[in-house]
User: What shape does this take?
Amino acid sequence: MNIVILGGAGLVGQKLARALATRGTLRGQAISRLTLADITDPAPVDAPFAVDSLTCDITNPASVAQAIPDGTDVIYLLAAVVSAHAEEDFDFGYKVNMTGTLNVLDRARALGTQPVLVFTSSIAVFGGETPQPFTDHSIPNPQISYGAQKAIGEILVNDYSRRGFIDGRGFRLPTISVRPGKPNRAASGFMSSIIREPLQGQTANCPVDRDFPHFYLSPRKCVENLIKGAEIPREALGLNHCMTMPGRVWTIGQMIDALTAVAGPAPAKLITWDRQPEIDQILQGWRMDIRPEKAARLGLEADESYEDNIRYFMEDDLPA
Assistant: This one.
């Protein structure tokens, strides 16, 4: 079993690589080689099988072909330009998130072996005047460029699967929280920083009110679901190969209450409450009631509580 993770230097890519190294198998077969590819050289991962790390620009077909060699069985397409960055730089967002996705799909097609391709989409495909709750049958109606680019990717994954070029499946990721490390350029970055920084004695700003609801999943559960998602039999996917990954809706207030329940009252006192006009427009379309029933039926799971999200971060990522 030869696996390629595009976006292998990122948070999810690195955690997925380590989980696969520990597991040693995927789809009932022993993993023989794992390739981590990203625009920056991915950190090495210890594993009982060969692990390659290389740079890859998915906007360049030749670079994609180098990263996905003949004999590749499973491709994880995690690489993307995130929400606020894609909104700031329209051309670059489409170059990476649309053209780059097409380059990867064309390379997978050229293999001629119908490789499994796991595509990470986003709940940003929802929004606008589409009635809530958002279900498996809701029509994507993105209100930001990133969401539009991910919706295009879903259509491509479905069509390439229908034509028999790939065994594709796409999962709309909830907002991943609590993310370790430094903030990225996602508009949702504060949804981790208001937990992560206070747990380390640092201040963090929240630009929305306590009653702001959103849809969340921990990094640990996200990785577990990406592994399960690769193992779903093709026939179980039905006619639509893309779906929303399970998560749960929590308000900012509920998140902070969970922080206090896990770590005491001190961290919450480090949160400031200043509006940020540059992300207000993006956040206006993010009050979401999402029902990920199909993925749940197929065995993917959400966190039981936001306290769990915080505990997972403290166990997996918080510096000693």
